[in-house]
Write a structure and sequence with these properties.
This protein has 318 residues and is an alpha+beta fold. The protein has helices at residues 18-26, 103-107, 134-138, 160-163, 170-174, 196-203, 230-237, 241-249, 255-263, and strands at residues 5-9, 31-32, 35-36, 90-94, 113-115, 122-124, 144-147, 152-155, 208-209, 221-222, 273-277, 280-284, 290-295, 306-307, 312-313. Helix content is 19%, strand content 16%. Bound molecules: iron/sulfur cluster and FE3-S4 cluster.
């Protein structure tokens, strides 16, 4: 629950207002075209610090579900659906982003945090950590958490024991909504269009990092929600949000993107490559063997209203 929380935007945040506070500390965030011209959290660091940040107080950590299911405004009497939506909310699942430039790692005086070269997972060595909490202060996403019982900090471990076996992380396996997927991401100039993650991020550009202006090059990407006002989303996901939303809106005519979406949560194995053909999406492992296939369109079976064999009538016939 602590490593992997879900907050309701716009009012949810754990610890309280983590993002609003950080955005305020960071100061003006300017973009020119698609390029960030403001300062990252490292460039804004006060003298003697690694990054600009703040250490939440104990009370900030006591309400994991603050703002849960609240909407952006009040639903007045007689209100009806309008497009764009007059009031809105959306869920933001948050784990450690296993950043390419992790502020937690950079700020630990004990060098207790390391990034694994083989898969990029960022871990805290529980033996070395002495609970200095500089990582908690400087992770802008507040994803290192000080454990008051063990007196050391801990964080999402990227389910490395599963990843080592070629399996997806537990949050993906458990996700009822099937909205998560793990995979390898490459630099844009070395991308593999058959990797489902590269396809979403680099080819269709439908998935974006959260608060890219922080400058950590995070490795968790989100598909922004289509019903939320654009300026709010742009502050969160950057200037390419509209392009991502447009790609999402095209999905019904985009078999490949639809195929990747349907492969999410379809297997607990790590999908290295995917392909879409003849109405099916296929997932393959690192040896090129098929591990999963899903139809792009679920078949519709219509059963007779009266089942003579069982002498019963069905009310739900599909
Ligand atoms: Fe470290 Fe925070 Fe980045 Fe995770 S999200 S790697 S805890 S800086
Ligand atoms: Fe280092 Fe954070 Fe522990 S700063 S010592 S990993 S609490």
């Amino acid at each position: 629950m602590f490593w992997n929380n879900v907050e309701t935007k716009p009012y949810g945040g754990y610890p309280i207002a983590w993002d609003a506070r950080l955005l305020e500390l960071l100061g003006p965030q300017t973009w020119e075209g698609g390029t960030y011209t403001g300062k990252t959290i490292f460039e804004s660091a006060p003298e003697g610090h690694v990054a600009v940040g703040f250490l939440p107080e104990d009370l900030d950590w006591v309400h994991p579900n603050i703002g849960e299911d609240e909407t952006s405004g009040l639903a007045e009497r007689g209100m009806h659906l309008t497009i764009p939506h007059a009031i809105w909310n959306f869920y933001l699942p948050r784990i450690c982003n296993h950043c390419s430039y992790p502020a937690c790692l950079a700020s630990c005086p004990r060098k207790a945090i390391y990034k694994r070269p083989e898969d990029g997972i960022v871990l805290i060595d529980q033996q070395r950590c002495r609970g200095y909490r500089e990582c908690v202060r400087n992770c802008p996403y507040k994803k290192t958490l000080y454990n008051t019982v063990t007196r050391v900090s801990e964080k999402c471990i990227g389910c490395f024991p599963l990843v080592e076996q070629g399996r997806q992380t537990q949050c993906i396996i458990n996700c009822i909504g099937k909205i998560r997927m793990a995979g390898w991401i490459h630099q844009p100039n070395k991308m593999d269009p058959e990797s489902p993650v590269d396809f979403m991020v680099h080819v269709r550009k439908v998935a974006l990092p959260l608060y890219p202006q922080f400058g950590l090059m995070m490795n968790v990407y989100y598909i922004p929600p289509v019903h939320v006002p654009l300026p709010y989303l742009q502050q969160m996901f950057g200037p390419h949000t509209e392009r991502a939303l447009n790609a999402y809106r095209q999905v019904k005519d985009d078999e490949e993107l639809m195929g990747v979406f349907l492969l999410m949560g379809a297997t607990d194995r790590w999908i290295e490559k995917f392909r879409v053909k003849s109405g099916w999406a296929f997932g393959y492992d690192d040896k090129g063997s098929e591990i999963v296939r899903v139809p792009l369109k679920e078949p519709n079976y219509i059963r007779p209203f009266h089942d003579a064999a069982r002498s019963v009538y069905r009310h739900n016939i599909t």
